[in-house]
Amino acid sequence: MPPFTSEVTSNTSAMPDHDRSGNMTDFYTGLGLAVSSSLFIGASFIVKKKGLIKTSKTGVRAGQGGYGYLKEWLWWIGLIMMASGEFANFAAYAFAPATVVTPLGALSVLVSAVLASKLLNEQLNLLGKMGCLLSVIGSTVIVIHSPKEQEVASMEELAQKLQDPGFILYAVIVTAISVFFIFFIGPKYGQKNVMIYITICSLVGSLSVMGCKGLGVAIKQTLSGEKNEFQNVLTWIFVLGITLCIAIQMNYLNKALDIFSTAVVTPIYYVFFTTFVILASAILFKEWRKLNPEDDLGILCGFFYNNYWHIPNAWV
After folding, report:
1. What band does 7 get if pLDDT is binned at 50, 70 and 90?
2. Which is more confident, 242 or 96?
3. Residue 168 pLDDT > 90
4. CA nearest to 144, candidates 270, 302, 259
5. pLDDT of 42-61, one tens digit each?
């Protein structure tokens, strides 16, 4: 594999020195935020799971439609940790491409797996340990080969991208499938098959990430003094969309965690969530156009390493 510096040069060689320096600063800022986000989110799964376990002993379980966990302080600690991680994750999208930020969620699976074996007595077998190692390798490969510059620099540019027929079609399909699963498939099969609730979380999550990316651009542009984007209607559409999507994600993720093992939920959720986010990002931002064939292959290999071992391990 070529050294990291050559990859950075190949992605940014056509840019002026000051622009290149600024892009790399943003890139490493986003990278640091994404890593810290994974640490918080990975630990939050375990804390919330322990809260749900305590709640299940005294009331109606979340998987059966109960909301007794709202009275459990341990669950709230887990929620605060997850919110902190999501805030860092949200901030990371303002500085680095989604192709970099999202795959680094593999680290949250690693953290969750280790803590689950220590605190929930969910044993991590040899295959699981290999999966964790490959996740770290895959994340590193993706970071090395990913685009180092932002996909959009202004809300005006983002507004034009949102009108792309490909992304509109993707959003419509995701919405239709999510609604169908929520009202027809979930009530019948949600407590029997982990894929139902995970699919809902992942599909809706892909749209929430695109919204976070847009809101991050608005905040960044506002703070830079270019223009107050909070007077832009599109910014508030992003805020409402993110709020709705996160509420749906949290509800169905709680259901999945309450019914199924953390060792099953976390890796499968990561694989599906990452896949749909990268797909949505590729359709909306078309960041693959900025990469050479070597980088494309590197990202595909990293994605394979990141995801291939998670689902088999979840069922062992």
Report:
1. very low
2. 242
3. yes
4. 302
5. 899 889 888 888 887 776 66
Chain segment 243-253, per-residue pLDDT in tens = 999 899 989 98
* 3-state secondary structure labels for all residues of the chain: CCCHHHHHHHHHCCCCHHHHHHHHHHHHHHHHHHHHHHHHHHHHHHHHHHHHHHHHCCCCCHHHCCCHHHHCHHHHHHHHHHHHHHHHHHHHHCCCCHHHHCHHHHHHHHHHHHHHHHHCCCCCCHHHHHHHHHHHHHHHHHHHHCCCCCCCCCHHHHHHHHCCHHHHHHHHHHHHHHHHHHHHHHHHHCCCCHHHHHHHHHHHHHHHHHHHHHHHHHHHHHHCCCCCHHHCHHHHHHHHHHHHHHHHHHHHHHHHHHHCCHHHHHHHHHHHHHHHHHHHHHHHHCHHHHCCHHHHHHHHHHHHHHHHCHHHHHCC
Integer Cα distance of 30 and 35 in angstroms: 9
Q: Do the Cβ atoms of 50 and 123 come closer than 8 Å? A: no
Residue 205 to residue 210: CA distance in whole angstroms: 9
At 166, which amino acid appears?
A: G
Distance, in Å, from the CA atom of 27 to the CA atom of 13, rounded to the nearest integer, reads 16
Q: Residue holding tokens 């139902």? A: 196
Arithmetic mean of pLDDT over the chain: 80
Which amino acid, 250?
M
Cβ–Cβ < 8 Å for 155, 231: no
Query: Tokens for 314?
Result: 């979840």
- The CB-side HSE value for 103 (13 A sphere, CA atoms) comes to 30
Do the Cβ atoms of 306 and 139 come closer than 8 Å?
yes
Provide Rg for the chain, Cα atoms.
20
**Chain-centroid distance, C-alpha 89:** 8
C-alpha–C-alpha distance, residues 43 and 83, integer Å: 12
